[in-house]
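I'd like us to work through together how a protein chain folds, taking it slowly. To get us started, please write out a protein record for me. Go ahead whenever you are ready, and we will take it from there:
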Amino acid sequence: MQIIDTHCDALLKLQLAKRGAFYKQEPLDFSSAEEIETNFARLQAGGVKVQFFAVFLYPDLPSDEKWQHALEQVDLFYTEIIGKNPAMKHIKRWEDIDALNDGEIGAVLTLEGADAFGNDLMKLRQLYRLGVLSIGLTWNNANLCADGAGEPRGGGLTLLGKDVVRLNNEHRVFTDVSHLSVKGFWDVMELADYPIASHSNARALRDHPRNLDDGQAKAMFQKGGMIDVVFCLDFIKADPKEVVIPDLIRHIDHFCSLGGVKQIGIGSDFDGISSHIKNLENASKFQNLINELQKQFSEEEVEGFAYRNFLDHRPGMRK
């Protein structure tokens, strides 16, 4: 069964390896590098049809270096992922997904945290031109747009952050709420035409600031947004010593109980997590999740979780 995965951090790994090459370390080959959980071979083996690739910057980077670091990751997307793997096709518009041929994998460029462009909306518009189709305003820290889930102040969107959401709407770009503060989340709900939680679970099952409570989940579903469950162990169970696939499925089942069966998807966070669900250690194992889902849900529902729900809720494509 096809898979659409709305979050991974392979670009950061590629960048760290490339920068390390200056110190006699070897750069990574996206096609088959063992270190990359979403390498091309594993995406193929796992049945992935569309993979989202996030541009992520460490929050302690000096502010005057962040734009350069972001552009390096975008360049790696073009050179190492698209340029060296002919079957990887850059999704520049949401309709491009429908044009993918058998054996081709769509690659979507996203931004995790507005730190890259600071308060310079010209840079944001340049990211749109480069093909960024989803923007998370924050990571866990605060920035000029909003407070993140880990910021004790818990503030919402700034005036700049609200302008960014409006620009996302104009460009048919997702506004990603996965790392936002609670107040920031509700500010996005008021403004965003295309909200998504690219990698979040249910707070009712695991009380973690990165997860969504029932009120937030219901608001997402009412707004037409997607919630894509994440494989990070700490977002699944309070005791993450050994997490198995049914533990993750409990979060899917809970979101279904809130009315979201048509708006649930997958946002693995591969290459951004350090420990893994048993039998779901990299992208080649996605069909293990599908097999477990088929024990509990109908084939139509499983297809929805795997890819169909996303296709039906792309910006400008909702039924």
Q: What stands out?
A: The chain has a mean pLDDT of 96. Residues 3-312 form a domain with the TIM Barrel fold (CATH 3.20.20.140). The beta strands are 3-5, 48-56, 88-90, 105-112, 132-136, 174-176, 195-197, 226-229, 264-266.
